[in-house]
Amino acid sequence: MNAGFPVSRPRRLRRTPAMRRLMAGVRLHPAQLVLPMFVKEGISEPQPVVSMPGVVQHSRDSLRKAAHEAVEAGVGGLILFGIPAEKDARGSAGDDPGGIVQRAIADLVADVGDATVLMTDLCLDETADHGHCGLITEGGEVDNDATLERYASIAVAQAAAGAHLVAPSGMMDGQVAAIRAALDGAGFPEVGILAYSAKYASSFYGPFRDAAECAPQFGDRKAYQQDPAGPLGESLREVRLDLAEGADAVMVKPAMSSLDVIRQVRDLVEVPVAAYQVSGEYSMIEAAAANGWLDRDRAVMESLLSIRRAGADLILTYWAVEVARHLR
Ligand code: PBG
Questions:
Q1: CA of 302 to the centre of ligand 1 (A)
Q2: Which of 101, 154, 205 to mutate to test the pocket of ligand 1 (most atoms within 8 A of CB)?
Q3: Predicted confidence (pLDDT) per residue in 125-175, tens digit
Q4: pTM of the shown model
Q5: Per-residue pLDDT tens digits for 169-201
Q6: Contact 50/90 with Cβ under 8 angstroms?
Q7: Which listed residue, 12, 253, 290, 305, has the most CB atoms within 10 A of its CB?
Q8: Alpha-carbon distance 9 to 256, whole Å?
Q9: What residues act catalytically?
Q10: What is the domain range of residue 305?
Q11: Strand partners, 239
């Protein structure tokens, strides 16, 4: 017996940087990071997003340059959000072969081809004038089943432009099945679906609505996105449904306020699990760091490690390029 002193000493494994490096249970790799990018129709210079310092709305040209840089840095993928010059109730730009996302994806296919994974957010909110993720009925509700037809058509347009993966984010019931059937029917069986499966109605999407200019013009998204106080098990139900409908990988969103959900999903499924570190998670850290209230670089790494530790295989993060460079 060693009188009162601890026998088990976890600190042994923390003594030196080399020891901590050897013993690390969680690692980040550039290939696990996906960079969300915004491209706006009709601008010639990138425009800063005020609520997301360091993030811009790209022109088609500046998007190409930034995509090159991201590929150079080794990020695993890019996910594209488009802001069309004209919006209407049906979100017509979404499935127009000349729509901004389709044109931008075609640019990137020509430039970087298969050197990275090109993904598209698949929703109505960025292209619809009302800012909701689905079509609106006369009574002012989001019409689930009518919206599925729009998603199917958008998926085909994005696949035809060259997207490797489409990522439906609108939280309509049955969206994955509708999109899978449309892709297969149009001759795109090889295009995969990364489903935003467990997506909460979150205040942390606030800055994104400036970046993508898609704030709902009335009401909110609570009738289709999940309630943070919703039924326990709801996320797993959504994930199971999406897998049964043909999702190739699933996503949890936001990340840091859903670490428990990421872990539950990781333990449930056999497909890759993505987590989206959303705009508000980015802006919180940037704003606190700008005030000198926390150490920015450490906070960024710690946030990403916590998301990995929760079980995410891939992480969508606005810091993807910076962190990828840091890791190399
Ligand atoms: C919907 C979509 C949103 C985000 C990604 N896809 C906004 C929303 O659901 O309100 C948010 C991403 C972020 O906040 O970084 N197309």
A1: 23
A2: 205
A3: 999 999 999 999 999 999 999 999 999 999 999 999 999 999 999 999 999
A4: 0.97
A5: 999 999 999 999 999 999 999 999 999 999 999
A6: no
A7: 253
A8: 30
A9: 199, 253
A10: 28-327
A11: none
Q: What is the pLDDT of residues 78-121, one digit of tens each?
A: 999 999 999 999 999 999 999 999 999 999 999 999 999 999 99
**14 falls within a domain:** no
| Structural domain count, the chain | 1
Contacts of residue 118, defined as CB under 8 A and 6 or more positions apart, other chains included, come to 77, 78, 80, 105, 108, 109, 112, 162, 163, 164, 165
Confidence of residue 4 (pLDDT cuts 50, 70, 90): confident
CATH number of the domain enclosing 108: 3.20.20.70
- Residue 49 placed within a domain: yes
Domain presence at residue 19 = no
Q: Whose CA is nearest to atom 10 of ligand 1?
A: 205
d(CA 176, CA 193): 8
Rounded to whole angstroms, how far apart are CA atoms 39 and 118? 14
Q: How far, in Å, are 16, 26, 30 from residue 20 at the CA level?
A: 6, 11, 20
